[in-house]
């Protein structure tokens, strides 16, 4: 249990009260010995840390931006989607919080176990359906009497929308979301046990004049294999070569070996005026800044890397590497 830290002013006041007799030190010792009990609700067990919840919020903020772009293109109207909250609650509590008749899309997310649920408020779902059918985006709640055509159109719309979840989660795990069920009554849907902890990401959605919530329910069993990857340490850490697998290291090495670089052998350099350059003629000599016996500098992508000497190989001009360039005080590179 975390200890309470007193400020300097509180410490001074406490010492003053003890010295004047307003407070008895023995009473303080008795209070310390008393057991402090805090109520704990086993039905609402917290299985995710605040750090992990923040990571899930970041992932789904990206998902909300992707959904905004997707639905705006599909429905050709103003749409704004943002993360309203991220909470961990029992599955039973989530089911009680949503309407008795609503739009429920159940997706598998291989290779992760379990399934996730995307619930769209009927106001939002029917506004989307109205736009798909050429309307102005007016919401008419008749979820209890969906026709087969309306069911197919709505399920296709959300099935394609969930593809953006794959991109949003790509920084943590590669998933393949697929629509498995489309339901309108939450009572007919039992994904996990009632007391199972689920993470609920609520997305505030605005379509024209209609607004409502899109909720994403992710059970603990789905997130359990990737919980270590939801920490800030995982997001911020940088891999070292020792942490890279041999297969990845070999693949990276082969890729680097194929990279092309620009190599130049510098015979020497010189400075002349523009007037001297203008009056250069045949057989004129330009004096370089180094002696003929001095080694040449080899530049790799404009950076000096080696020292070499000129030569010839099979009637072609060549250079022979003498040593690795280590720089010097008189060098400007």
From TrEMBL:
The entry's keywords: Bacterial flagellum, Cell membrane, Cell projection, Chemotaxis, Cilium, Flagellar rotation, Flagellum, Membrane
Mode of membrane association: Peripheral membrane protein
InterPro entries the record matches: CheC-like_sf, Flag_FliM, FliN-like_C, SpoA-like_sf
Gene expressing this chain: fliM
Protein name from the UniProt record: Flagellar motor switch protein FliM
Family to which this protein belongs: Belongs to the FliM family.
Cited CDD domains: FliM
Cross-referenced PANTHER family: FLAGELLAR MOTOR SWITCH PROTEIN FLIM, YOP PROTEINS TRANSLOCATION PROTEIN Q
Lineage, broadest ranks: Bacteria, Bacillati, Bacillota, Bacilli, Bacillales
Keyword Cell membrane belongs to the record: yes
Compartment annotation: Bacterial flagellum basal body; Cell membrane
Domain Flagellar motor switch protein FliN-like C-terminal: 255-323
